[in-house]
């Protein structure tokens, strides 16, 4: 392996309130004959005609409403790919408009339009061999950093793991803070804390370098400005949070996440706990690993009167605990980033079991 990571980034970024209106111009040069653009849209916008009518449909273009009750699954991705192939043969591109769930679905389906087999075959690192079709991401909720990352996280038959590859990154992203206006307070907090936790984990990790630090520090400050310094949510908060998500994503692109993510993956796999809230549930108990970050987190929770669920692992079977522990310990780079090369001596199965029991 090369000594330095050579990172593929998003090709084009447009930022600004109202920039969504430029979508038609942005997509025009990407259209291939009469092959349609497919717009994956978060189910929140299902009945929002005012918003749907702003999507620049041409020719055979289609809007597909994406159900986000559960996080994306390999089976769902394969099914969407099969349906699009059956209906259109080829498409010009896939545009994901929504949160991490919809953006990840868009990335995965765009890749599976050209890569053979099932998305299960590509869960891992650098398994995707050919570029997918054109893809663009348009976040409508801020925090995951999925708009900039080189992965799309999928739950498959045996694991929750992304399709990490140079081909996974979006060709274009549209960052329009206006689109985030309608996110409910609790959800906004959980997803934003994904960003805050990315920063804390990156900044306190052994993989840290000046590249990651520069983005991580800025993203963390932006989160603190909106959740600790401000007394009322306003447009400027959405603008800052969209940029925090972007910078937080850039920070982990060149480092790694840590304990909260490793533990929360276990919860997601066994209990289906969603990423944002799962990270909050875990991070709330990580004072031993991230004392300063957890202290700030608790202040934000209190200020915004957010409820962090407690006791979610009560009554789980031995088998369920064992499965959570195995999934979590399987995230080796995360643990190594958090605890160093000797992490296996520090985070034993017993110690992790005790942590899961506190959640
Ligand atoms: P999400 O996409 O699941 O959306 C959360 C909720 O917010 C949904 O109910 C959705 O309908 C609603 N919503 C979205 N936009 C809205 C708007 N403008 N107004 C009102 N409601 C709105 O949540 P998320 O936290 O953005 O994403 C979580 C997913 O992202 C997980 O599947 C996780 O695995 C993935 N993820 C991916 C990466 C990556 O690098 N690819 C990184 C972190 C997380
Ligand atoms: Zn995350």
From TrEMBL:
Keywords: Oxidoreductase
GO molecular function, one term: metal ion binding
Cited InterPro entries: ADH_Fe/GldA, ADH_Fe_C, Alcohol_dehydrogenase_Fe
Domain Fe-containing alcohol dehydrogenase-like C-terminal, chain residue ranges per copy: 190-297
Domain Alcohol dehydrogenase iron-type/glycerol dehydrogenase GldA, residue spans: 13-177
Pfam family of the protein (one): ADH_Fe_C
PANTHER family: 3-DEOXY-ALPHA-D-MANNO-OCTULOSONATE 8-OXIDASE, ALCOHOL DEHYDROGENASE
Protein name: 3-deoxy-alpha-D-manno-octulosonate 8-oxidase
């Amino acid at each position: 392996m090369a000594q330095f990571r050579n990172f593929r980034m998003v090709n084009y970024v447009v930022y600004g309130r109202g920039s969504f209106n430029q979508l038609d111009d942005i997509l025009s040069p990407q259209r291939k004959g009469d092959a349609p653009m497919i717009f994956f849209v978060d189910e929140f916008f299902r009945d929002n005609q005012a918003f749907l009518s702003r999507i620049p449909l041409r020719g055979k273009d289609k809007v597909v409403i994406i159900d986000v009750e559960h996080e994306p699954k390999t089976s769902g991705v394969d099914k969407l790919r099969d349906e699009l192939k059956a209906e259109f043969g080829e498409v010009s591109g896939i545009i994901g408009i929504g949160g991490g769930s919809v953006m990840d679905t868009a990335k995965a389906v765009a890749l599976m339009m050209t890569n053979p087999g099932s998305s299960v075959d590509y869960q891992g690192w650098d398994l995707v061999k050919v570029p997918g079709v054109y893809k663009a991401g348009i976040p409508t909720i801020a925090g995951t950093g999925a708009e900039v990352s080189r992965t799309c996280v999928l739950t498959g038959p045996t694991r929750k793991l992304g399709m990490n590859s140079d081909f996974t990154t979006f060709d274009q992203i549209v960052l329009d803070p206006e689109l985030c206006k309608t996110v409910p307070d609790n959800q906004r907090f959980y997803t934003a804390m994904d960003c805050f936790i990315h920063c804390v984990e990156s900044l306190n990790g052994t993989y840290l370098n000046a590249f990651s630090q520069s983005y991580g520090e800025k993203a963390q400050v932006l989160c603190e400005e909106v959740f600790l310094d401000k007394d009322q949510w306003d447009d400027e908060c959405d603008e800052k949070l969209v940029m925090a998500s972007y910078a937080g994503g850039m920070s982990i692109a060149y480092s790694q996440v840590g304990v909260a993510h490793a533990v929360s993956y276990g919860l997601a796999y066994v209990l289906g706990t969603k990423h944002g809230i799962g990270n909050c549930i875990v991070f709330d108990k990580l004072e031993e690993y991230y004392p300063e970050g957890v202290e700030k987190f608790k202040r934000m929770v209190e200020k915004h009167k957010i409820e962090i669920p407690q006791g979610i692992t009560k009554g789980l079977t031995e088998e369920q605990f064992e499965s959570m522990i195995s999934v979590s310990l399987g995230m080796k780079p995360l643990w190594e980033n958090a605890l160093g090369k000797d992490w296996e001596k520090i985070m034993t199965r017993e110690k992790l079991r005790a942590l899961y029991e506190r959640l």
